[in-house]
Give the backbone structure.
Amino acid sequence: MITEISNAFENFASLSKAETSWDNVGWLIENDTSIINNRKILLTIDLTEEVLDECVRNNINYIISYHPVIFSGLKRLNRENKIIFLCIKNDISVFCPHTSLDILMNKYLFKTIINNKNCDEGSVSKGCVSGSNVRSVRDIINILKKECNILTMRYSLGTNHTLDTIFDNLIVGVGACSKNMMDFANGVVVVGEISHHNILHFVSRNCAVIIMEHTNGERMYLNELKSILLNNIKECEIIVSSKDKDPVLFL
């Protein structure tokens, strides 16, 4: 399965597309698979203790975690590395594609907002996707809340705009990619997370900003990823984690 999963990603999201100057992608935990008989894969955005427990309870030995379970070099192992220890103890191997998937995630997000999976994918720049828009800010927020299965979503409007304003242009980027959008103006910015000052920057450039929280837009893509993998890996069972969730809560 290690080779099959690697080959599958090479077909549609090669690790060569990742931002390897700072990112950490690929098989970050690789166990001996010669004694493993099951062909189950768990998909998650973050590998938390709750997700790992779900994996163990369901006898799953392969995890595809979008975010790297190991990000920077480890100089020592301690209780903070509990997840790594538990993966090794339970013969669980972990593959992390991270930024190699970003363009596909953003194309999927763009098409979801446009509400036409067969539409033009928009243009790609610095990993973000932009193109024409025909929806009001309110409509975009409602689409995203439904797709993300959340009740609230933060937003900011430029001067003289309302939730019913329809901007001609749209740019999207999952995660923390607002720094790659700074030249954008006169449109809707949909982003995972963004600083206070970058919000003001976009508002001053006649934009509306919609903030999904870091992982919600990424998580939208997991069912699509499941379908792609099922077409690339034979006779396997793929489960999207039911315990994976954005850590930010609203009262």
